Predict the structure.
Amino acid sequence: MLSAEQVREVEAAVRESERKTSAEIAVAVIRESSDYSRYELLAAIIAGLIFFTGLAVFTPALEAWLRTLTWHYTSTLLVAVSGFSTFVVIALSYFLTNLAAIDRRIVPRRVMVEQVRRRALRQFLEAVVHRTRERNGMLIFLSGLERRIEIVTDIGIADRVPHSVWEDVVNELSAGLKRGDAGNALARAVSRCGEILAGHFPPRVDDINELKNSVQLLGDGS
């Protein structure tokens, strides 16, 4: 989702933004927040059932064709061909359902929204964003397959900044991603978050960098 150059651009935006505020900004990117294997397998099985039903309807025609292939036709050949071809259809369908474009159509949208939110909250805890001194850490989380953006804030920020403010940031970032300008769009989102946080959490004299400024590139569905 991000090239090495784009990652450096975002990390520079994080460092620059945190000079203006005592709050901490973390960024994480993942290709997909879940493997959705349950839905992929279900779709493949349904495709197999539809194919097998079609075979059952056209059994006489299939049987006639098989008779032309061998001198010693038996019903066992019909069963073997039907079973093997159905297995191939299921296997091929399962492979195709792993493609992002198809995944987005077979997995309910509400499930994707829930999985991305859950994965973002998990990253918020794993990256210890919740352990800043003023409870003013925030996470910008991007999930590619689902095309979802989540902003998770600690209680210190949530008490001062309305959620609608972050929705505006998400909308702007989403528009940039749709234009194919991921690195620049994410860097601008980080800068915008820094400006918002600076008004509520100005820099402290004894301020220290409590979280890594690096963009966390997470493994698929991990």
